[in-house]
Write a structure and sequence with these properties.
By secondary structure, this protein is α+β, with helices and mostly antiparallel strands. 55% of the residues lie in helices and 23% in strands. The protein has a domain at 34-107. It is built from 4 helices and 2 strands; from the N terminus they run E-E-H-H-H-H. The two termini are 28 Å apart.
């Protein structure tokens, strides 16, 4: 399965015949993600699918379903912030927005 979030890095490698050493220069680094793959990986693939299904079921039985769902979403957002701390903030916020919108759609509260 393709990775939903990835870095694209271009480097130039130069070998110095006199010293026998490689020089590595990073020419470009950019982060990209595929919203469809991200949503699929988070909500349709195990083990996350089970976690979300359980959260939705638990919310259905709760007195305040939105509070239960907010808690699950906050945990997921923190997990993403921890896992992608090197990702530029604007990209991370975009990823979290995609996940949040997909989550509320699945919960029927969009």
């Amino acid at each position: 399965m393709p990775t939903p979030a990835r870095w694209h890095i271009r480097k130039r490698y130069t070998y110095d015949l006199t010293t026998g050493e490689w020089d590595v220069a990073e020419l470009m680094r950019e982060f990209a993600f595929d919203a469809g793959l991200l949503v699929d990986a988070e909500f349709e693939q195990f083990p996350n699918k089970d976690m979300w299904d359980q959260a939705l079921a638990h919310a259905g039985d709760a007195e305040d379903p939105e509070e239960v769902l907010d808690e699950q979403l906050a945990l997921t957002q923190q997990m993403y912030r921890d896992a992608f701390e090197d990702v530029p903030e604007d990209h991370l916020e975009e990823m979290l927005t995609v996940l949040e919108e997909a989550f509320w759609r699945r919960a029927g509260m969009d």
